[in-house]
Every structure is written in structure tokens, then in C-alpha cells.
Write a structure and sequence with these properties.
Number of domains: 4
Number of strands: 9
Largest sheet: 5 strands, antiparallel
Strand content: 5-15%
CATH superfamily of the largest domain: Hypothetical protein, domain 2
Length: 442
Amino acid sequence: MSEVSLDPLLCQQVRRARDARFDGKIFIAVTSTGIYCRPVCPAPSPKESNVVYFSSAYAAEEAGFRPCLRCRPEIAPGSTPWLGTSQTVSRGLRLIEAGALDTGSVEALADRLGVTGRHLRRLFVEHLGAPPVRIAQTLRMQFAKRLIDETTLPLTDIAFAAGFGSVRRFHAVVHALYGRAPSALRKVHRPSSAFRLAVREPFDWASILGFLRARAIPGLEDVDDTQYRRCWTGAEITIRYTAPHLLISIIGAAPGLWLDILRRVRRLFDVAADLDVINATLSLDPLLQPLVLARPGLRVPGAWDLFEIGVRAILGQQVTVAGARTLAGRLVASFGQMPTAEQLAHADLSKIGLPASRQETLRAYARAVLAENETLENVRGIGPWTRHYYAMRALGDPDAFPAGDLVLRKATGLTEKQLTARAEAWRPWRAYAALHIWRGQS
């Protein structure tokens, strides 16, 4: 059972009221059936003596419970179960969600986090109720279940798309978890026309589209008032929003890329943000309160590609948003695509229109990424603003805060030192505070 602390009285109230606000935050397991559900499950309520509560699907499955076929826990809005946990767990979970254990080991992940594999397992069980391998397996199986229910892909393609090494392994895991074969699961639900990704409300679709539209790179992205379209590895991905879901259309992508695409969409649109918690903290400051009230669904736009965001941040140094977009367009046109770190590490960038020093910063950044330097601390030409912007969008750090940003300082009327001091009360949501202030100036 998860060791994450849950208030028993609150959980009971949520279950009895079928409170949708806690969908994805609390999971209800029934000992008499061995099944776990979402709070909104339409099934008859069980006796309280037969109920166990979990803060994540990972923990419920680690305790031996099976997902409900009626309420489908795999489609619950994403949550941030690492809130209040150690920085190691927070970063580790983000890496797992990005696919760190698809081909790598727990030991390799632990090494990236600066701890031993044994210590990482202990931290995950302590804070999340399940070890890293269980979490990776649950995420993989949840995606496979979505493909079974929502697409007409052959089961063989689904097995490999979800990262299973063999069809036999896929069938074994599905049968162990659901007690039936994948083909039997498919008969329960009818495929839809687009892949749906649940978003935790409120969700300010117009604001995030506006942010992305102002920065859309010609030849790579197209953003209008209703949708975001992206070209990637020869495929075309279109994302629309119909509350409470993002509708994802994928054309021209091999099934093996679908899980990666879903991960990128989740990150780009910050779908798991718990804005009830974030807004409650930020609203305590009179400076931020009217901004939060005006845009309660504001998200921190993430990154489709981590390396790309670093490139964009460097191109945006000391130029306007429009100027950075123009430079990025020239870069894409020069390479025929957004260049990879390998392509950029020693590239001739003289025709892009950048100062020589900025060209070398881009090459140094590419070499740092190839060396797996995620913090970019020692890259010449990359200062605090760029590092915080990268952490905010690429690493999903909710507390990244470029206090030296000129717009932030002008909007607040504070010096960098004063702004840094005031922002202490906004932790750990300073990235959201920055977005509110930026958005308030547009």
C-alpha cells in the first residue's frame, strides 16, 4: 500500500460525492473485488470497510489491484503525485514519464540523478508507493489500454507501440492485469476519431495557443485560434481542445512513435498542472491575485523537444519574441528541419544573422547536450535567464523563475533583488507566477 499520506475523511467524502475535482488525485480500491477506480466511477459504492485509498494508479497496482473497466483509470486527468516529495523523486518521475526506463535501467536513471539504484527505489516507494519499474510499467500499460480502446490499430502494432518487447509479453501483462486477453478488452469500447487526452480543468486554451502562436517557427509549426499543428519526423500532428480533452490527430507516424508523441503533447500543454493548489498559493499575494482571477487556467507551456527549447532560448537572448522567431525560421530553413545536437555542434551558422558569439553559444550548447549536461551551468554565453527559461519549459520545473527578466521587473516595479525576495512566497510555483506577469503585459 502507498505510504503517501491521504486524509481518510476527505477520501470518504470524495468517494461518496463522486467529486470530479479529485479525479486523478485519489484512487479507490475495493478489497472484495480486487479492482481500483476513479472517484467518478458510476459503479455502486462499496462498503467503507472494503475500501483502500491510493494517491496514484502506480501504488494501487503495486498493491495488487486491477484497473476498473468502467471508469478506466488510464484516462483520468494527469496529476502531479510528486508534490511535496524530494527533488530527486520529482526529477526522476519526470524522466520516467519522458521514457527514461523504456530502454535504460533503474541504475542508469539513478546515476543521472546522483544517487544509487537502491536509494532511488526506496525514495520512490516512500513518496509514491511504488518503485520506478512499476511506475514505468503502469504508464506503458495505460498507453496500451488507450490504444486498444480508442484506435483500430492491430494488437501486434499496439504491443510494440507501447514498448513491449514481444507480443507474447504484451498478452501476458494484459492478462495478468485485466484477467482477459487484449482482444476481449477491445470489445468493451468503440474507437473514437481522435486520440483523447484528459486535461485537468480549468484550462486556458486561448492563452497557451496565443503563447505558442507568437513563437511558432515557420516550416515547423502552425498555430491559429483553434489548433496547434506540428510537423515531426515526417508526421503531422494536430491538437485541438474540446473540454475536458485535448483531441490529438496523428497522420503519417508509425505506431511506435505514438507514445512519444503523447508524452510530448502532455509536456507541451502542461496538462497535469493542479491549478487549484497553484492558484491558492499565488492568490495570497495582492500583486498576483487579479492576474490569477483573470486567467485561472493559465499553464506554463512546455517543450515539444527539449533540445529545441534550448536553441529557442539562446536565439531569444537580447531580441524580441518576433526577432527570435525569425532567427529560428532561418535556422530551420537552413537545415530543412530543426537541427539536432549532432548537426549543430560544429555547424557553420554564419548565414543565420547571429553575432559570432551567439553562434558559438549555440554550438557549445549542442556539445553540452551531447555530454548530457541538463543544467547548462558551464556553457559559455548561457546566463541565469536562459537557464531558468530552459528549466521552466524543457525540464518542467514549476519553480524556475528568471528574476532578472526585464518584463518581470518593469511589470512589478521591483529590482531583481526585490523581486527575488518577494517571489519566495510564491514557491514552489514561481514559473506560473512568471507566466501570469508576462501574460498580464500582453
